[in-house]
Amino acid sequence: MAKLVKEWINEKLERYLEETYKVRPGELYSYSYLQNVRWLLYSLKEIFKALSVDYSRPSKLDIRVRNGIKEELISLISMPDIGRARARSL
Fold first, then answer.
1. Backbone angles phi, psi at 89, to 5 degrees
2. 40-71 as b/e, with b when 16 or more CB fall inside 10 Å?
3. Against a cut of 0.85, is the pTM above it?
4. Which of 2-6, 53-57, 63-67, 74-78 shows the lowest mean pLDDT across its residues?
5. How many CB atoms are located within 10 Å of the residue 76 CB?
């Protein structure tokens, strides 16, 4: 699962992930893969908050996991109607 998510946030195509990891179409979003990682990131953020540690890094990673983008596209992805493909082309 970690390899799959790592390739997802490094902008591998969905078709590649489906073939390589035997994930059915749509399963990446609706099944537990990305949901589990987002839950772990949320938990890490709460632990950081309890320890009074800066938790901006897990927040950026959560955006990357949600959208399947590299860090440099975070500002573009926050604009309306800009998805991962359009952000990369811009």
1. -70, -30
2. ebeebbeebeeeeeebeebbebbbbbebbbee
3. no
4. 53-57
5. 16
CB atoms within 10 A of CB 26: 10
Show the tokens assigned to 49. Answer: 């908050």
Domain ranges of the chain: 2-89
CATH: 1.10.3380.20, 3.40.50.150, 3.20.20.140, 1.20.120.430. Which one for 2-89?
A: 1.10.3380.20
Per-residue pLDDT tens for 7-65?
989 999 888 988 998 888 778 776 677 888 888 888 888 898 899 887 766 678 888 88
| Angle subtended by helix axes 2-9 and 56-67, to nearest 10 | 90
What angle (nearest 5°) sits at the alpha carbon of residue 37, between those of residues 36 and 39? 65
CB 51 within 8 A of CB 34: no
